[in-house]
Structure formats: structure tokens, C-alpha cells
Amino acid sequence: MNFSLFRQRSFALLIFSEATSLFGTYFLNAALALYVLKLTGSPEKFASILALGMVPYLIVGPIAGVLADRFNKKKWMILLDVLRGMLCISLFVFSWTETISLPFIYFTVLFISTCEICYGPVFISLLPSIVKEEELVSANSFEKTINETMKIMAPFLGTLVYSLVGIGPVLLVNGFTFMISALAIFFMALPKVDSVIARQLHLFKDMWDGFKVFFIDKRITSIVSNAFLTHFFMYPFILLGFPYIIVTVLGGKGTDYGIVESISTIGSILAIFTVPPMKKFGVANNIGIGILGMCVPVIPLLFLGHPDFIQLLKDNEYYPVLFFGLISFLLFLAFSFYLVFFASFYQTVVPRELFGRYGAGMMVLNGLGRLCGFLIFGYLFSLDSLLYAVIFFGIGMTLKIVVHIPFMSMTKKLEQQQKQVV
Q: Could you list the residue ranges that cross the membrane (predicted)?
């Protein structure tokens, strides 16, 4: 990999900012999942709170990309980081004297999600603007490696701190990570946007332009559909199902869930080292390989439908960690491999002046997928067997293979055309 990328100050600070922010976010998310699950006591109520966090994606999302392309990206990112940091630190102070009840959780989830949907399109547009096109695969690999490394300890430490001292100190840590992220962005040198052109843009036209990008190329339509299926099936199954099954169904400890979350990150990191030797097979084939790999963990999950297997997991406190740790490892090994080529493709195909709006459109679509997924999986996990949720998850992974076929077909057609020209 091209380590000389870190000599570029903006790239190094961008990676540091994202890694710091993500560490705090995963630190908080792991603890907050256990805290909310404890307050609600049911998968459906837990799912409704997770779904609530997707609402801003649908309301604010359509204009987030327009804002990202119009405003000063640096100031915008700093403002959003500082606002999130101040909220978390304020909640920490509040927790000294009062209990953080569900209404505060609702507000926090909505506020942070709103900031994320405004922040995401800006961040998506930055990496291709500060590195050369031929460096994108290496840059994406570094980004994934460092960020996943930060995530290894975050979930375990988040659940451990929560188990020992409660949710307040967890919020304090997350608040400081947002502030550190804002400081890193402050020292970055980012390319300037032509403000004259930006002022001439029209709000609703710009919003529609972001969605039209999805259809300028069949391959983009394919990967957008694939991303939607990931957020509709995979993320809700993991974010809702794993803590519910491990802690509530199997009676495990909160730190068991944290360990499983950390193990998934090891798979993500190892995936990055498989990228360089696999580049020779091309983007289309490698995305397909990643999708097929994501289908493999569905097979052992089918055992969760058998009462004897559930009892086996309950009989030994280490079995749930080993079983779900293996599932997470395999799933994120394949997913992270897939994600590097996924990102590298759209970063080279989507017009750069539309990156912000494309990113916002993706976040709206993915938010809609998670919203529906959380509600459906919340219902499925409340049924008398976990098998219903597992089968639904398997259907989603199969659909990911189906929607990748047009990508493969179009890529093969373009390759044949290039050969004819030569």
C-alpha cells in the first residue's frame, strides 16, 4: 500500500478526524444499545428507537447534499462536530443529578442523526478531492484499516465503562472525540468551492440532480440498490438482533456483546490486506466475491431456530461470544472487502460536482432501508422463533447477488467494447 499518502497533511488529518469520531461513536453506540434495551425490555420497542434515528435521513437528507455542495465544507464539518460534542458533554453533566430517561434518548438520537446526515455528504466528497484518482483504492484501504482498528476496542470499552459507571461517562468520552475531530478538521487545507456557481444552484433542482445520478449508469443503479439492501437487511439484523439475542435471549453480559462487536472489526481489518492481490480481478468481480462471502454466515445462523442449539449456547457463557464472534468475523471480512471496491468505483464514476448530492441521496435511501428494516426485524425478533428473522436476513443477502448481475453484465460489455477499439 502507498504509505506516502500520509505525507499529505489533509489526508492524514482527514483519516485522524474520522477515526477519532468513529471511535467515540462506536464507544457510545455499544453502550447506548444496552442502555436502551434495558429501559425498553422488548425488541419491538428497541427497534422503534433505532428506527427513530432514521427519520432525519428522510426529512433532512434531500437537502443535506445541496448544503454540502453550497457551503464551506470545512466550517460546516467543524460546526456539526462541535454541536454533537456539546450535546454529549451537556448530557454527561445532566446525568450527575438526573436519570437520562427515554425522552432524552429520543432527542439525542434525533439530534445526532440530523448532524450525521448533514455531515456525511460533505465527508464523502472530500477524499476524492484530496488524493489522486489512481490513489483512491489505497486511500480507501487505509481509511478502512485505521478506522476499523479504532473500532476494535471501542465497543468493548464502551460496554465495559457502561457496566462499571453508567451511561454518563460514556457520553463524556463521545463528546470529547467530536471536539478532537473538529480540531483536526480545523488544521486541514481543503479545496475551495466556486461560490459563484454555488449561488446559482436551485434547491429542488439540486436535490433532484442528486437522485438522477443513480440512473446515469446501470452499474451505479446496481451498487445503489445493493447499498439499500445492505441497510434494509444486514444492519438492522446486526444492530438490533445481536444485542437482543446475546443479552436478552441468551442471558449474556453486556461486555459479551462488546467483545463480539470488536471481533467483527478484526475481520474488517484482515479484509483490507486481501485487497491489493485481488485488484487484478477487477472491481465488478471483487464486489461479487464480497457479496457471496456475506451470504456464508447466514448458514450457521439457521441453527438459532433450533431450541436445543439455543440451550447449548445458554449452558456455557463463552459459547455465545464464540458463535456470534465467528459470525461477525466472517460477515465483516466479506463486507469490508466489498466496501473498498464499492467506494472506489463510485468515486471514479460519479461526477465530482455532484458528490455531495449523490452522498445525500444515498443516505436518504439507506436511511429509508434501515427504518423499514428495524421495524420489520423488531416484529420478527418478537416472534416465538429466531428462525423467522434469520430467514428474512438470508433473503436479503440473496437479493444482493441478484441486483449485482446488471453490474457484472455492463462491465463485461464495456470490456468487450474496449477490446474492439484496441
A: 12-37, 49-69, 228-251, 257-275, 287-306, 318-346, 358-380, 386-407
pLDDT for residue 282: 81
Q: Hey, how many other C-beta atoms are within 10 angstroms of the C-beta on 416? A: 10
CB 256 within 8 A of CB 140: no
Q: Does the pLDDT value for residue 350 go beyond 70?
A: yes
290-321 residues labelled b (16+ CB within 10 A) or e (exposed): bbebbbebbeebebbeeeebbeebeeeeeebb
Dihedral sign computed on CA atoms, order 238, 242, 244, 245: positive
Alpha-carbon radius of gyration of the chain: 21
Q: Which residue shows C-alpha cell 446526515?
A: 117
Residue 334 CB partners (closer than 8 Å, separation 6+): 271, 289, 290, 291, 292, 293, 294, 296
pLDDT score of 421 more than 70: no
pLDDT at 135 over 50: yes
d(CA 250, CA 354) in angstroms, rounded, equals 47
CA of residue 245 relative to chain centroid, distance: 21
Rounded to whole angstroms, the Cα distance separating 357 from 364 reads 10
CB 69 within 8 A of CB 207: no
Range scoring the smallest mean pLDDT among 70-84, 111-125, 270-284: 111-125
- pTM score above 0.85: no
From CA 29, how far away is CA 239, in angstroms rounded? 9
The stretch 176-201 carries a mean pLDDT of: 72
Instruction: Give 102-119 pLDDT, tens digit per residue.
Output: 888 889 888 888 888 777
